[in-house]
């Protein structure tokens, strides 16, 4: 009987929606992500908007990017920076360097959505974690993985945005 309950409990955790998973992460993760959002996120968000050349809304699914056991790494530049935000800023800077592309981006890009879905995020084939539909650039990449691949991620972001301008 006890074994069956453990299996059922594990199944519920694995199938739980992300908001439930957020509620199940530890206090240290909640504190760390709150600190990141207060201290580190505002300048990062400002850098994204500056690179875009306009106040593009950036929606981040923090509950999905808050991974159990990683709380001590959230403030590290490599955790979110090198895997998600630096490539995004670099790609936006590349596109907005040209006036025609900058104007096209401003009229086309309505929102940036950042998330991590473990079931669909690619390990390294970064274009597979991106979509650009109805003005929304969706980034589905795992934080703190393959941190040396900033250029590959930047290239994937640049290509999908240019393709949709």
Give a topology summary.
Layout: H1 2-15, H2 18-24, H3 27-52, E1 58-60, H4 62-65, H5 81-96, H6 99-108, E2 111-115, E3 130-133, E4 136-140, H7 150-163
Parallel strand pairs: 1-2, 2-4
Antiparallel strand pairs: 3-4
Helix pairs in contact: 3-5, 5-7
Walk me through what this model shows.
Residues 1-23 have low confidence and may be disordered. The radius of gyration is 17 Å and the shape is globular. The protein has 7 helices and 4 strands. A hairpin with a 2-residue loop joins strand 3 and strand 4 (136-140). With 165 residues, it is an alpha/beta fold. The chain has one domain. The longest helix is centred in the first third of the chain and has 26 residues, at 27-52. A 4-stranded mixed beta sheet has the order 1-2-4-3.
Quickly list its features.
about 160 residues, alpha/beta, 4-stranded mixed β-sheet, 7 helices, about 10% strand, disordered N terminus
Would you identify the regions where 5 or more consecutive residues have pLDDT less than 50? Answer: 1-23
- Which range best describes the helical content: under 10%, 10-25%, 25-40%, 40-55%, 55-70% or over 70%? 55-70%
| Overall spatial form | globular
Instruction: Profile the largest sheet.
Output: 4 strands, mixed
Beta-strand percent range? 5-15%
Tally the helices: 7
Structural class, from helix and strand content? Answer: alpha/beta
Strand order of the largest sheet: 1-2-4-3
Count of structural domains: 1
The total of beta strands comes to 4
**CA-to-CA gap between the ends?**
58 Å
The helix/strand order is HHHEHHHEEEH
Query: Which whole number gives the mean pLDDT?
Result: 89
CA-based gyration radius: 17 Å
């Amino acid at each position: 009987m006890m074994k069956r309950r453990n299996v059922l409990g594990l199944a519920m955790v694995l199938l739980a929606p992300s908001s439930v998973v957020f509620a199940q992460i530890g206090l240290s993760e909640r504190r760390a992500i709150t600190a990141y959002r207060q201290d580190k996120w505002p300048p990062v968000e400002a850098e994204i908007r500056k690179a875009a050349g306009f106040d593009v809304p950036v929606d981040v699914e923090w509950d999905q990017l808050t991974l159990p056991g990683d709380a001590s790494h959230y403030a590290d530049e490599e955790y979110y920076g090198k895997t998600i935000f630096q490539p995004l800023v670099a790609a936006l800077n590349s596109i907005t360097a040209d006036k025609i592309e900058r104007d096209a981006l401003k009229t086309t890009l309505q929102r940036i959505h950042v998330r991590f879905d473990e079931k669909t995020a690619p390990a390294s084939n970064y274009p597979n974690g991106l979509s650009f539909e109805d003005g929304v650039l969706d980034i589905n990449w795992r934080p703190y993985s393959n941190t040396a691949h900033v250029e590959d991620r930047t290239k994937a972001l640049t290509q999908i945005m240019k393709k949709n301008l």
